[in-house]
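re: that chain from earlier
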Amino acid sequence: MTRVSFYLLKGQQEQARQVFACRLIEKAYSQGNQIYIHTDSAEQSQQIDELLWTFRADSFIPHQHMNEANTEQCPILIGHDDTPPRLMNLLVNLSPQHPRFFSQFERVAEIINDDEHLKEQGRERYRFYQQRGYQLDTHKL
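^ sequence. v structure.
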């Protein structure tokens, strides 16, 4: 069954939330995971794409957008309105809603900061997962 981890960050900066996502993705990638990053929009997909290249000078995290060619071999995919084309280990959800396909993943990472609107949406997702019996972890950072 899918395990859902909520990461609660201090502060309201969206940039800090996305940098934390990049660190989490880097760690998961180094452990051999296949990762799908689900965003809210094409704009947010582009932001996380650029940040994966720049958040650390010595880091290399191979990734592609879902709409690019030859995504079959890429270990990290970014999308906002597509279901991943294959089974992957980790879903990093940066969208305010739970993706309808979340249960095909071993793990889901939900990253929440102190923005009140984002926190309320996170609470709704927490209740959704909890009511359906998914294993939940919370990490206060």
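The radius of gyration is 14 Å.
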